[in-house]
Amino acid sequence: MPQGELCNRQPIVTDEQLKLTLSDKSGKKYYAEMLELDVDTNALWATIQKTMKARLKTWLEICAHCGMCADSCFLYQVNDCVPEQVPSYKIQSTLGHIVKKKGQVDNEFMRHCMKVAWSQCTCCNRCGMYCPHGIDMGVMFSYLRGLLYSQGFVPWELKIGSGMHRVYRAQMDVTTEDWVETCEWMAEETEEEWPGLTIPVDKQDAEIMYTCNAREPKHYPEDLAEAAVLFHVAGTNWTVPSEGWEQTSLSMFAGDWECCKDNVNHVYDAIERLNPARVTGTECGHAHRATVIEGPYWAGREDGLPPKPYIHYVEWLAEALREGKLKIDPAKRIKEPVTLQDSCNYVRNQGLKDVTREIISYIVEPGYFVEMAPNKEHNYCCGGGGGFNGIGMYREQRNVALRKKMDQILDTGCKLVIAPCHNCWDAIRDLEEEYEIGIRWSFLKPLIIGMLDIPEGMRVEW
Amino acid sequence: MYELLTGPLLWLVFAISFGGLLVRVVLYFKGLSQQLDRVAYKAHLSYGLKGAFNSIISWLNPVGARAWRKKPGYTFIFFAFHIGLLATPIFLAAHNIMLQENLGFSLPQMPAFFADLLSWTVIVACVAIILRRIALPEVRILTTAYDYLLLVITVAPFVTGLIARYQMGDYQFWLLAHIITGEIWLLCLPFTKLSHCVLFFCSRAQLGMDYGIKRGGLKGSTFSW
């Protein structure tokens, strides 16, 4: 069978193809074509032979089938503990089977793998912590996603997502002009209230270069304005690059590794060009993982580090509060029970568990912070990680997945959840929409701005 | 027959088994890829080694890893099985007499009563592991005939050894059966999933390095297993 017009093994590389795929409402034609899509079994096996190294091969081989990973998976827990949701089973029956068959699998099996890879694993990496052999199924599912993507078996939204990154170098169609205009627009608007505030674009040798998530300029530019306010109040010499400002990577969720490399290089080029002392990004978990934790490897950097120290927003914020560059008015501190969502992508994947709690210590009145159980690196995925949030055909499964976070939040008794991660924020918003448990959720930026102790004359009161 | 099985054949089995395991370890580490695994093993070696050490130690300790603490029943069975499996053949008096005769040295020997107890522990734990595989849906779905075969291969030297020890039936027959099943077990180590006896350390060290470097170690975060 031939490859489809929309569903095929080629990545989206032109604006025309992107618009064509987007115009296919809910991917109706795309998924219909997928039913007929050929599997290039030789290419599949060749890729496995080239890319499957000792670690993954050993993991598949030595899994003791002990089932210790079962409880570690929130998807197993919320799906009534059906054995098909045991992490080891999920990977052995998909990737394990492909390897056993030396790539000789058919269309139906690949579609089954797609369903498992994107609706039964969020690549949260929690199972890796509970396996006696140290087998991380999240890592293996990321690998499987790469194989599936290369064969065209990827959810419609993520094919588009990685296409967006390839065409616009952003997860949404935000061009360089759009971005720079948004910066100017936000600076003008915000300056009315904060005299002297600027959003400097392409400034050389700044203290901090700021990067963000394309959804911010596209859908909620006030987030950019809030970042600007905090940099301004903290007296930071900062800048944003005109190119290389987008640090997210839907291509990472899609398994489009070539695109991942291109995108992260684009950000690194901006760092090299503008030569800031440090870089920080917005309150986004997967963006941080893509640009800072995994990105250096995609780019082939020997030390596994970005070209300049690249910190998560929570690290910048904690530092500004610690050093007194941002001061909190004690009277405005949070005085209601509040809990914190630990993002898998920078807590379990980079150990930033204490720094978020340090921020809490500045902004929450003692006695009001309630930890989720379990928390820190043992916390569960928000329910919508790894691309799950954005995939229409798996919405029902995603809504079930949200129940774990819902139960965790309900158990804290809090009505306010701090979620310094775009994806967690979205998932918590969706869970409130779906289950109406009466909670509020927030990024850190607006919370902090609301409780700042601002030097006189810095802000114009209306 | 006895001379052959405990003489040249035994040496050959040892060579294949231990040589094979060594090859597996070497191939594991040689087959790691900084870029594909996304871990800069060499650039941050000290952080990596610290993580590797923490990871291995936490999981060799029955209360060291959170996963062990959460499942005390299974943990008990698991550790009893593995301790018996390793300690009995190494410290058994009869084995050490052979070692003394052949190589002129021996290891500390355990009392016969203790060896019996450990052998029974292995057998009982093995039965418990099999029952668990059958009883729990989350384990049953993972279990294949290969898993049972490996359990049989592993426990066979203990069953035959105990029968010979208690002199039930034809002692010579059960002694030979014990030696043969023991040698089959040794031969299977490098070629089957039993290779986890060394690859456990490799895999754990690897994930420990991952956590010790990019997943928190460089940020000063000690990972709690």
Descriptive account of the structure:
The complex is a heterodimer of chains A (about 450) and B (about 220). Chain A is mostly helical and about 450 residues long. In chain A, about 50% of the residues lie in helices and about 5% in strands. Chain A contains 21 helices and seven strands. In chain A, strand 6, helix 20 and strand 7 form a beta-alpha-beta unit. The radius of gyration of chain A is 22 Å and the shape is globular. The mean pLDDT of chain A is about 95. Chain B is mostly helical and about 220 residues long. Helices cover about 75% and strands about 0% of the residues of chain B. In chain B, helix 4 crosses helix 12 and helix 10 packs antiparallel against helix 11. The longest helix of chain B is centred in the middle third of the chain and has 24 residues. Classes of the chains: A mainly alpha (about 450), B mainly alpha (about 220).
Looking at this protein, list some descriptive labels:
heterodimer, A: globular, B: 225 residues, mainly alpha, 12 helices, globular
Summarize the structure.
Helices cover 50% and strands 4% of the residues of chain A. Chain A has helices at 15-23, 28-34, 41-51, 54-62, 74-78, 87-100, 107-119, 137-150, 156-168, 176-191, 215-219, 222-233, 250-254, 257-274, 285-298, 313-322, 344-348, 354-363, 395-412, 422-435, 444-450; strands at 208-210, 238-239, 278-280, 310-311, 338-340, 416-418, 440-442.
Number of helices of chain A: 21
Instruction: Label the overall shape of chain B.
Output: globular
- pLDDT < 50 runs, ≥5 residues of chain B: none
Order of helices and strands of chain A: HHHHHHHHHHEHHEHHEHEHEHHHEHEH
Structural class estimated from helices and strands of chain A: mainly alpha
The share of residues in helices of chain A is 40-55%
DSSP strand content of chain A: under 5%
Question: Can you tell me the residue ranges of chain A where pLDDT is under 50 for at least 5 consecutive residues?
Answer: none
Largest sheet of chain A: 4 strands, parallel
Task: State the distance separating the first and last CA atoms of chain B.
Answer: 50 Å
Rg calc of chain B:
20 Å
How much β-strand is present in the residues of chain B?
A: under 5%
Shape of chain A: globular
**Mean pLDDT across all amino acids of chain B:** 95
Question: What quaternary form is this?
Answer: heterodimer
Order of helices and strands of chain B: HHHHHHHHHHHH
- Residue share in helix of chain B: over 70%
Structural class of chain B: mainly alpha
Largest sheet of chain B: none
What's the total count of β strands of chain B? 0
